[in-house]
Amino acid sequence: QEIASCDGIILEIGAGPGGRYMPYILKVNPDATIIISDLSPTVVREWKSFLDKTLDSPNLYYAAFDFCHMPFKDNCIDIISDGGGIGNCIGEKAEALKEAYRVLKPGGKLFHYIGNPDSKTGASVTGGVIKRLRLAGFENITSKQAAFGLLATKR
Q1: What is the DSSP string of 34-98?
Q2: pTM of the predicted protein model
Q3: How far apart (Å, rounded) are the C-alpha atoms in residues 134 and 131?
Q4: Which tens digits make up the pLDDT trace of 18-28?
């Protein structure tokens, strides 16, 4: 809900074949401005083809890139919705988190999917993820159990 209510630019990284949070965002807020991205150009093309047929939205953009080297200026994105892209990036997760921090506006938010952070399995990885988020510069890191992830804010 917090992601979908954003009036600014949402970057969905690692959309994958399921789109992770992007379909929910568009259901709640069909006018959302979203950059739908994935490492795979094929996945990005398929989303574009599907959404062009099902939605008439001038606010959807598409890009294929490595999350460790995002093709955006500093401080230009309001929210990053990471439905697994950082966890599946080619490079180091720490580098991808630093890139996410770089492109977010001050006060911008990163929603980072890790599975249920309060489950037994999630608890085993949550501490390491929080540490990497803090090292990248994020603060106010909170568990979002219902959405299976962590929400972190750029200073």
Answers
A1: EEEEES-HHHHHHHHHHHHHH---TTEEEEE--TTS--S-TT-EEEEEESSTTTT-SS-HHHHHH
A2: 0.90
A3: 5
A4: 777 788 888 88
